[in-house]
Write a structure and sequence with these properties.
48% helix, 4 strands, Glutaredoxin, 2 domains, alpha+beta, four-stranded mixed sheet, globular, 200 residues, Glutathione S-transferase Yfyf (Class Pi), Chain A, domain 2
Length: 200
Amino acid sequence: MAENMFLFWGSGSIPCWKPMIVLEEKGFGGYKNKLITFSNKEHKGEDVLKLNPRGQVPTFKDGDIVVNESNAICEYLECTYTDKGTQLIPTDKAKRARVLQRMHEEEVAKKVEAAKEELDRWEAYLGETKAFVAGPDFSMADVWFYPFIAFSVRMGLELEKFPNMKAYYDKVTARPSIQKSWPPHWKEEPAKFSPFKGRI
C-alpha cells in the first residue's frame, strides 16, 4: 500500500511534519517521497505544480488520488485507513469529541503559541489527562499539537516551567513516528535564533 503513496515535503515545515507522523503511525513507513528545498523554489517546480496548482507542500498522492493541505491529508489517511496502525480519531463518541475539540483548539494555540496564557491552558489539559492531549491514547490531536511544541522548543521555549508539557514532549518525542519523521536539518544544525528563550 505504501508503495502507491508519494509525498512532497519540506524539512522543518510543521504542515509537512503532521502527515509524515500520521503516515508512520498508520504503518506506511517506506512511502515514496521527495524532500523539497524551499530556497531553490522547488515547491514551484513542475512536478509539484501539476498536482498542486498553488505550488505548496505538503502535496500527497495515494495512487491516482491527490490530496493537498496538511490537515486534509491527515484526515484522509485516518478516514481511509481506519483499520491500519494507530487509531488517531476514536470511534467512541465521547473520546472522539474530545480529540476533535483539541484538534481545533490547536488552531487557536498556533496563532498565540508564544502567549503564556495559552501555554498555561495546554499545561492544564495535560495535567488532566496525565498522558496525551486528548486522553490516555495518542491521537490526531497530538499529531496536530506536538509539532508546534517541538518548533517552540527549537525556538527556545523552556519547558521546565511547564512540567506536564515537558513530560508530554519527552514521551511523544520518543515515539517511532516522531523519530522517523523528525526534520532532517534540525538534526544537522541548531536554530539560528531563539525568540522564546527567557521570554516565557
